[in-house]
TrEMBL record:
One of its GO terms (molecular function) is serine-type endopeptidase activity. GO terms for biological process: DNA repair; DNA replication; DNA restriction-modification system; methylation; negative regulation of DNA-templated transcription; proteolysis; SOS response. It comes from Candidatus Nealsonbacteria bacterium CG_4_9_14_0_8_um_filter_36_17. The keyword Zinc-finger does not apply. This is Repressor LexA. NCBIfam families: lexA (TIGR00498). The keyword Methyltransferase applies. Keywords: Autocatalytic cleavage, DNA damage, DNA repair, DNA replication, DNA-binding, Hydrolase, Methyltransferase, Repressor, S-adenosyl-L-methionine, SOS response, Transcription, Transcription regulation, Transferase. Gene3D superfamilies: Umud Fragment, subunit A, Winged helix-like DNA-binding domain superfamily/Winged helix DNA-binding domain. The lineage of its organism: Bacteria, Candidatus Nealsoniibacteriota.
Length: 471
């Protein structure tokens, strides 16, 4: 699938090469489209990923006759307001969309979005929405509605006693009310436009536009077989086994936004994300916050084989510190394992993409935890791993398995867990008393109380991981 801008860049590259006999450099592309360097880089990388350009190290090369069989073209009819209703503009363009992102039947078209009234549903100014033509809709669905014969708008629809309510997904805006309207279609997909909020940066923007289903079955945005699996985690007080109970006790409430105030592993926030809610994840511990960034805020970034190779390799020209080797010698891990941690922690710290770095940290943290007796860092007990004695707890096979193997397993799991629910989910690392993000529902699960009547000291349990965050 190519967005209109990607198609324009691709066509410009082809025409430039045909006319001048060589391919344009990024500076020339940027000048032609009035784009900053980072945006041009993003488009080139996306065209490479999608197979329209060959992935050459020093040159652009076109892949001929590129037209994946699972792509279909649908009309891009014009611009629709997500704010005040405006008249639709008919501009004859097309956009390529994967067949898997369309309904199995029916006719589809696309419209560019203008305005910010649907931002809480993940539809932003400049995005493109994919519509299935249909004359009816259920309460709460986002529709293209025609009012007064020629005014078209994009809103959630609700049928009330003697009128229709067209509700923005933006708390600062008021709804529209009308007694007559014509439903022209229902939103089923959104193509995000990253250019509408571009800022000048020396680093490339590596996000790629992609369509994700956002309106499916009631109570969840996905069909059962599409629901991503939450990765395995080991954490004191994790609620992984209780998420179904939490949902059973909240699903009948009317809410669209959720604060998970003590986020921990993110299992509860992840469940609400699966149910189509906008989630604000929070945890005071930085290593937990990075889990929230990776699983809750992140919606499309995954670790590639190249990323994993970079993380797990020792680079000849890089200088690696030995802080973990010297500071934690014979405390938690063997000398060889500490050396591996120094290298990998340093490499992860060099990853410039926020979400890929968080994914890598998650994989590292879980690898560290699974190799620890009791899965904690509150005791100097490496001797338990080394002792050849019978024990009633733990798994020596798991402890002795190489860090690299654990890391790759967790990386695979978290990659499989990434999905987009169409909402602008966010992760924070704030004191619970200072957190002021407003939401319809707040889930509070405070740290456990010990037998001494005080809260469990999670810093004591996980200080080693907190230190790696600032390594």
């Amino acid at each position: 699938m190519l967005t209109p801008r990607q198609k324009q860049v691709f066509e410009y590259i082809k025409k430039f090469a045909k006319k001048k006999g060589h391919f344009p450099i990024q500076k020339e592309i940027g000048k032609h489209f009035r784009l900053v360097k980072s945006t041009v880089h993003q488009h080139i990388e996306t065209l490479k990923e999608k197979g329209y350009l060959n992935n050459q190290a020093r040159a652009i090369e076109i892949t001929e006759n590129k037209k994946p069989s699972d792509l279909v073209e649908i009309p891009l009819l014009g611009t629709i307001a997500a704010g005040e209703p405006i008249e639709a503009i008919e501009e004859k363009e097309t956009i390529e969309v994967p067949k898997s992102q369309l309904s199995k039947s029916g006719e589809h078209f696309a419209l560019k979005v203008r305005g910010d009234s649907m931002i809480d549903d993940g539809i932003f100014n400049g995005d493109v929405v994919v519509i299935r033509k249909q004359p009816t809709a259920e309460n709460g669905e986002t529709v293209v509605a025609l009012m007064d014969d020629n005014e078209v708008t994009l809103k959630k629809i609700y049928k009330e006693k003697d009128r229709f309510r067209l509700q923005p997904a933006n708390p600062s805006l008021k709804p529209f009310f009308t007694k007559e309207l014509i439903v022209q279609g229902k939103v089923i997909s959104v193509i995000r436009n990253y250019e509408s909020n571009i800022y000048i940066s020396s680093e490339p923007l590596v996000s790629t536009e992609e369509i994700k289903n956002i309106y499916k079955e009631p109570l969840t945005l996905f069909r059962g077989e599409d629901i991503s699996k939450f990765p395995s985690t080991r954490f004191q007080g994790s609620k992984t086994k209780l998420v179904d109970w939490v949902w059973d006790n909240t699903k009948n409430l009317e809410f669209e936004t959720v604060v998970d105030l003590f986020g921990g592993t993110g299992s509860v926030g992840y469940m609400f994300k699966q149910k189509g809610k906008r989630v604000f994840y929070n945890d005071y511990l930085k290593f937990n916050y990075l889990t929230g960034v990776a699983l809750i805020e992140n919606y499309n970034k995954k670790l590639t084989n190249d990323d994993l190779e970079f993380i797990l390799s020792k680079h000849k020209n890089d200088k690696y510190p030995n802080f973990i080797q010297t500071t934690f010698k014979n405390i938690y891990y063997t000398d060889e394992e500490n050396r591996w941690l120094d290298i990998v922690s340093t490499n992860i710290g060099k990853i410039k993409d926020k979400y890929k770095q968080a994914l890598a940290y998650f994989s590292l943290f879980q690898s560290c935890i699974i190799k620890r007796p009791y899965n904690l860092f509150h005791r100097k007990n490496l001797y338990i791993r080394k002792a050849d004695v019978k024990r009633s707890f733990g798994n020596k096979t798991t402890w002795d398995r190489p860090f690299k193997e654990h890391f790759l397993n967790f990386a695979k799991e978290i990659n499989q867990a990434i999905f987009d629910n169409g909402k602008r989910n966010m992760a924070f690392s704030q004191d619970a008393f200072d957190f002021n993000k407003q939401a319809d529902l707040i889930y509070i699960d405070t740290p456990y109380i010990s037998n001494k009547g005080v809260g469990v000291d999670y810093i004591d349990f996980y200080h080693f991981l907190e230190g790696i965050c600032d390594y």
